[in-house]
Design goal:
Order of helices and strands: EEEHEEEHEHEHEHEHEHEHEEEEEH
Strand order of the largest sheet: 9-8-7-10-11-12
Helix content: 10-25%
Number of strands: 17
Number of helices: 9
Strand content: 25-35%
Shape: elongated
C-alpha cells in the first residue's frame, strides 16, 4: 500500500509479476466517465484488466461489460503487471503523489518490521524512504534505535500530541501508518494526522467491528490482521492446487489455481480462458506461465490456451460458485 501510491488494496500473485490493485477514481482522471474498454486505449503498452468496479463501501459485485462506465468516486479493482502498475494507477488518479515520507505510529513488532522493510527497499521512483517511528515507551525506543539503521528516526513521544505532529512535519508526510496494539490510539492518531495535513492515513484495527466505523471517517485505509490471516486460511481450505486465495474489498474472491493434466484428463487444458464455462459469474481473468528462464502474464482477452502447469487467476463474484470452480480444476481420475 505504501509502495503503490493511492492504492486501497494490493495483492501479489506467485512471484509478484502479476498484481491486483484497487483504487478510488477521482473526478478529473482520464478514466472518470469512460467505459471500461477505454483503459487499454489509454495505456496500450500495458497488460491490464478491470475485474470489479462500483461505489465504495458497498459489498456487492456488479457484472461488468466493455461498455460499463467507470464513474468518479467508484472503487476499481484491476489486474496488471508490476512494471505497468504506476502508469495504470495514473489513469484513475489525476495526480499520483510520491510516498517516500512515511511516519509510523507504534514501535511494536509490526512497526519494527514495517520500518525494516521500507528501509531495505526503494520507492517506485528509486528513492530511499524517509522513515520516522513514534513510540511512547522509552525502553522500546532504545531497542528500536539499536535494531534499525541510523537513517530511521525514532521519537519517544505521545502519539496524539498535536504540537509534536506539527513540529515533525506531519503536513509534509506522504503516508501516516498507525500500528499500535490499541485501536483507539490508532484511530485518534490517524484522525489527527489527517486533520494536520498527512496525505494518506492507514490504520490497523484489531477489532473487526470497528472497520465499518473507521470507513465513515476521512481515514483512507483501515484493515484488520485477521484479513491477512483469512487469505492464508482460504488457501488451505480451498480444494484443488490453490496457490493463493484472497477476499476482495468490494466482495468476491480471487483464486490462483494451478492447471494440471492433458486435454484427455482435464476440462481446462487446451482451452482459452473465455471457453472454460465456469459456474455462475466466475471467470478466468489471467494466466501466469513460467519457464526456466522467464515468466509470462496473459490476460483473458489474449489468444492463449491453458497449458499444464499454468497458474490461472479466477475471479469469483459469488462464494457459492467456488466448489464448482475447484472441481473444474481437479484432473479426472485417470490422471493419477
Amino acid at each position: 500500500l505504501i509502495t503503490y501510491p493511492e492504492t486501497l488494496q494490493v495483492i501479489e500473485f506467485d512471484s509478484g509479476e502479476l498484481l491486483l490493485l484497487a483504487v478510488k477514481v477521482v473526478t478529473d482522471s482520464k478514466m472518470a466517465g469512460q467505459p471500461i474498454s477505454k483503459i487499454r486505449e489509454l495505456v496500450p503498452e500495458a497488460k491490464v484488466q478491470i475485474i470489479s468496479a462500483g461505489k465504495p463501501g458497498k459489498k456487492q459485485v456488479t457484472k461488468l461489460k466493455g461498455d460499463s462506465k467507470i464513474e468518479a468516486g467508484f472503487e476499481v479493482s484491476f489486474l496488471t503487471t508490476r512494471n505497468a502498475a504506476f502508469n495504470v494507477i495514473q489513469t484513475f488518479r489525476s495526480k499520483t503523489r510520491k510516498s517516500d515520507r512515511v511516519m509510523i505510529a507504534g514501535g511494536g513488532s509490526l512497526g519494527l518490521q514495517l520500518a525494516r522493510a521500507l528501509d531495505d527497499s526503494e520507492t517506485l521512483q528509486g528513492n530511499p524512504y524517509n522513515i520516522k517511528i513514534l513510540e511512547s515507551n522509552m525502553a522500546r525506543c532504545q531497542y528500536l534505535s539499536q535494531h534499525l539503521s541510523s537513517s530511521v528516526l525514532v521519537l519517544n513521544v505521545d502519539m496524539t500530541d498535536e504540537t509534536l505532529f506539527i513540529n515533525e512535519g506531519i503536513a509534509n508526510t506522504d503516508v501516516f501508518v498507525a500500528v499500535t496494539n490499541d485501536d483507539e490510539d490508532n484511530f485518534m492518531s490517524c484522525l489527527l494526522a489527517k486533520k494536520l495535513g498527512a496525505h494518506r492515513t492507514i490504520t490497523i484495527i484489531n477489532r473487526v467491528n470497528y472497520i465499518d466505523l473507521v470507513e465513515e471517517t476521512n481515514i483512507d485505509i483501515a484493515f484488520s490482521p485477521t484479513e491477512a490471516t483469512l487469505s492464508e486460511l482460504l488457501k488451505h481450505i480451498r480444494q484443488g492446487d490453490v496457490v493463493s486465495a484472497h477476499a476482495l474489498r468490494r466482495g468476491g474472491e480471487i483464486l490462483e489455481l494451478v492447471a494440471h493434466g492433458t486435454q484427455k484428463t482435464s476440462d481446462i487444458i487446451g482451452k482459452k480462458m473465455n471457453e472454460l464455462n465456469l459456474s455462475g459469474e466466475a471467470k478466468a481473468v489471467a494466466i501466469i506461465r513460467k519457464t526456466r528462464t522467464s515468466e509470462q502474464v496473459y490476460m483473458s482477452y489474449e489468444d492463449v490456451t491453458i497449458e499444464d502447469g499454468d497458474h490461472v487467476i479466477i475471479f469469483v463474484a459469488n462464494h457459492s460458485d467456488i466448489p464448482k470452480v475447484e472441481k473444474k480444476f481437479t484432473p479426472k481420475v485417470n490422471f493419477f
